[in-house]
Amino acid sequence: MKKERNVLESTRGQGAMEYLMTYGWAILVVVIVGVALWYMGVFNLGGSAKTMTGFGPVKPLSWGVMENAGGMVVSITFTQGEGSPIQIDPATGTSVDCDDDGVYETDLALSPVTGTYGTGSSWQATGSCTVADSLPAGTPYHMPVKVIYTKTVAGFAESHSSVGRINGPVEAAS
Question: b or e along 115-148 (b: 16 or more beta carbons within 10 Å of the residue's beta carbon)?
Fold first, then answer.
């Protein structure tokens, strides 16, 4: 009985070795080809997607960051979901941190420049980042954005800020 068991275990081990020797090379070739294709960028799906995180009731609806000879042009369309009209200082109420160093160095100009926006309204803020902060087209950016605004509730003014981050690839200038 013991001899039969050793023969059975021996044939099982032999079968496993034959399987690995027969198909192991094919599996290894498939893995090597897969790694080579990955290294060449075949599986790259076009870079990073545009996303936003954070923000309160005043948030980006759409945005673009384009390369420019003088740096980068930032254009953000905001939507207002506060529930009552808000006022934004057209000169300094919206700013971005172009190089993500913790300093909001670029103030964006508003359009329309009224500075007062009702619930559900949209407006655009546009500005330029300097050459030192510039990134080439296709490079992912992570840009903090801050909107400081005032809303009036029951006759009292309240100061608020909506802070978040926009992410995506820098677009090529057209």
Answer: bebeeeeebbbebbbeeebbbeeeeebebbbbbb
